[in-house]
Amino acid sequence: MATAKKTAGAAPARKPNAAFMKAMTPSAALAAIVGADPLPRTEVTKKVWEYIKKHGLQDKAKKTLINADANLHKVFDKAQVTMFEMTKLINNHLK
User: Fold this and answer.
1) 3-state percent helix, strand, coil for the chain, nearest multiple of 5
2) Measured between alpha carbons, how far apart are the two ends of the chain, in Å?
3) 21-91 maps to which CATH number?
4) CB contact at 8 A, 69 and 55
5) Which stretches within the chain are classed as H helix?
6) CA 20 – CA 2 distance, rounded (Å)
7) What is the value of pTM for the model shown?
8) How is the chain split into domains, by residue range?
9) Fewer CB in a 10 Å sphere around the end CB: N or C, the chain?
């Protein structure tokens, strides 16, 4: 009984979803963090994470929680959010 061998080739590169790459305009509250220029969602998320790390807003005990400062509180409407909840809340501030 012969077994078929799979060829060890590189997987084809994934193309990013066009919806994520479309430039979106941030709200005034979000613009205070990422800037007012239109950006793709992926870049908005990167810039928000840069802001969080720069200002030490990731919870020390539980790394999945983000503690909002005055600027982030305007976006999140909460004092603390999970990193998974954060993306949904940011999307509400993009047009």
Assistant:
1) 45, 15, 45
2) 59
3) 1.10.245.10
4) yes
5) 18-21, 28-34, 41-54, 70-76, 83-91
6) 45
7) 0.78
8) 21-91
9) N
